[in-house]
């Protein structure tokens, strides 16, 4: 069988399906999502082909999140237990956030007291959204999280959008600000948080730690213009996700500018014809 895949450039990704021959097993090594048959590397699932040096693997298009130490994730509290919270991070099982891994009133370095454990729902309760960092995992594969940095913690004033984790690429910073006045948190687990922009000088610093403000469940007043911007960005993410296009702040900024220039409402972006036109224009500029 002729093999059409060109591996001259590392990082080039192409779609494949189960049973399709990817390349020769005499030249490349098989990785996850592949098997060897008749000296060929063959795909065992649908996804994108990835090459690192001589290792060829297939990353599934629809998959659960498999965490790595240092990943930034967005999650939702599912259960409050003794001295810890369980957090949905789009994985095969809930992650764990321990009481010792969060900032508490009185300073980040102080010891956790029994009274803190009795008041855990004052910090996080079921349904709360948060951004955290992945720590070393348990033996059973459960992820450990921490929110000890003030850039992590409870999320307010925004909207959660879920995409496949394969669409989020690792980058230097997963905190992004768009020119339209919207902040993004691109969770490696496929959970994306869209919120109104907060200037750096308005964010809480460790010296001025205010537990009541940081752990508040009350949203700020959000003007209609900002609400429309959040809705437009949310729908743009849905448009790209449906077409399996990786989500970045750069492509969202380009798409947002196009939507504004075309005077396209947030709801119209979800129309198939509008979405196809927008994707074609934006990807041509990339």
Automatic annotation (TrEMBL):
<dbReference type="InterPro" id="IPR012340">
    <property type="entry name" value="NA-bd_OB-fold"/>
</dbReference>
<dbReference type="GO" id="GO:0004527">
    <property type="term" value="F:exonuclease activity"/>
</dbReference>
<keyword id="KW-0539">Nucleus</keyword>
<keyword id="KW-0271">Exosome</keyword>
<dbReference type="GO" id="GO:0071038">
    <property type="term" value="P:TRAMP-dependent tRNA surveillance pathway"/>
</dbReference>
<feature type="domain" description="S1 motif">
    <location>
        <begin position="68"/>
        <end position="148"/>
    </location>
</feature>
<dbReference type="GO" id="GO:0071035">
    <property type="term" value="P:nuclear polyadenylation-dependent rRNA catabolic process"/>
</dbReference>
<keyword id="KW-0698">rRNA processing</keyword>
<keyword id="KW-0378">Hydrolase</keyword>
<dbReference type="InterPro" id="IPR048565">
    <property type="entry name" value="S1_RRP4"/>
</dbReference>
<keyword id="KW-0694">RNA-binding</keyword>
<dbReference type="GO" id="GO:0034475">
    <property type="term" value="P:U4 snRNA 3'-end processing"/>
</dbReference>
<keyword id="KW-0540">Nuclease</keyword>
<dbReference type="Pfam" id="PF21266">
    <property type="entry name" value="S1_RRP4"/>
</dbReference>
<dbReference type="InterPro" id="IPR026699">
    <property type="entry name" value="Exosome_RNA_bind1/RRP40/RRP4"/>
</dbReference>
<comment type="similarity">
    <text>Belongs to the RRP4 family.</text>
</comment>
<protein>
    <submittedName>
        <fullName>Exosome complex exonuclease rrp4</fullName>
    </submittedName>
</protein>
<dbReference type="GO" id="GO:0071051">
    <property type="term" value="P:poly(A)-dependent snoRNA 3'-end processing"/>
</dbReference>
<dbReference type="InterPro" id="IPR004088">
    <property type="entry name" value="KH_dom_type_1"/>
</dbReference>
<dbReference type="GO" id="GO:0003723">
    <property type="term" value="F:RNA binding"/>
</dbReference>
<dbReference type="Pfam" id="PF15985">
    <property type="entry name" value="KH_6"/>
</dbReference>
<dbReference type="Pfam" id="PF14382">
    <property type="entry name" value="ECR1_N"/>
</dbReference>
<dbReference type="InterPro" id="IPR025721">
    <property type="entry name" value="Exosome_cplx_N_dom"/>
</dbReference>
<dbReference type="InterPro" id="IPR003029">
    <property type="entry name" value="S1_domain"/>
</dbReference>
<dbReference type="GO" id="GO:0071028">
    <property type="term" value="P:nuclear mRNA surveillance"/>
</dbReference>
<keyword id="KW-0269">Exonuclease</keyword>
<dbReference type="GO" id="GO:0000177">
    <property type="term" value="C:cytoplasmic exosome (RNase complex)"/>
</dbReference>
<dbReference type="GO" id="GO:0071034">
    <property type="term" value="P:CUT catabolic process"/>
</dbReference>
<dbReference type="GO" id="GO:0000176">
    <property type="term" value="C:nuclear exosome (RNase complex)"/>
</dbReference>
<dbReference type="GO" id="GO:0000467">
    <property type="term" value="P:exonucleolytic trimming to generate mature 3'-end of 5.8S rRNA from tricistronic rRNA transcript (SSU-rRNA, 5.8S rRNA, LSU-rRNA)"/>
</dbReference>
<dbReference type="InterPro" id="IPR036612">
    <property type="entry name" value="KH_dom_type_1_sf"/>
</dbReference>
């Amino acid at each position: 069988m002729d093999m059409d895949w060109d591996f001259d450039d590392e990082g080039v990704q192409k779609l494949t399906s189960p049973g399709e021959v990817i390349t020769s097993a005499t030249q490349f090594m098989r990785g996850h999502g592949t098997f060897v048959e008749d000296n060929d590397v063959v795909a065992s699932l649908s996804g994108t082909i990835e090459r690192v040096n001589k290792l060829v693997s297939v990353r599934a298009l629809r998959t659960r999140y498999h965490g790595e130490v240092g990943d930034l994730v967005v999650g939702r509290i599912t259960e409050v237990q003794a001295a810890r919270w369980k957090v949905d991070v789009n994985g095969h099982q809930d992650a764990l956030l321990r009481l010792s891994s969060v900032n508490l009133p009185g300073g980040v370095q102080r010891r956790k007291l029994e009274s803190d454990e009795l008041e855990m729902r004052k910090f996080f309760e079921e349904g709360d959204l948060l951004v955290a960092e992945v720590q070393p995992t348990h033996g059973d594969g459960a992820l450990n999280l921490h929110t000890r940095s003030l850039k992590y913690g409870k999320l307010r004033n925004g909207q959660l959008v879920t995409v496949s984790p394969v669409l989020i690429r690792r980058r230097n910073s997963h905190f992004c600000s768009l020119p339209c006045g919207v902040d993004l948190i691109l969770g490696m687990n496929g959970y994306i948080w869209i919120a109104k922009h907060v200037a750096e000088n308005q964010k809480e610093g460790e010296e001025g730690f205010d537990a009541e403000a940081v752990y508040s469940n009350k949203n700020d007043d959000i003007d209609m213009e900002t609400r429309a911007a959040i809705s437009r960005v949310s729908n743009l993410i849905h448009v790209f996700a449906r077409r399996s296009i990786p989500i970045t702040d750069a492509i969202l900024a380009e798409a947002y500018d196009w939507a504004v220039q075309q005077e396209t409402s947030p709801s119209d972006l979800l129309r198939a014809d509008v979405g196809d036109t927008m994707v074609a224009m934006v990807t041509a500029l990339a």
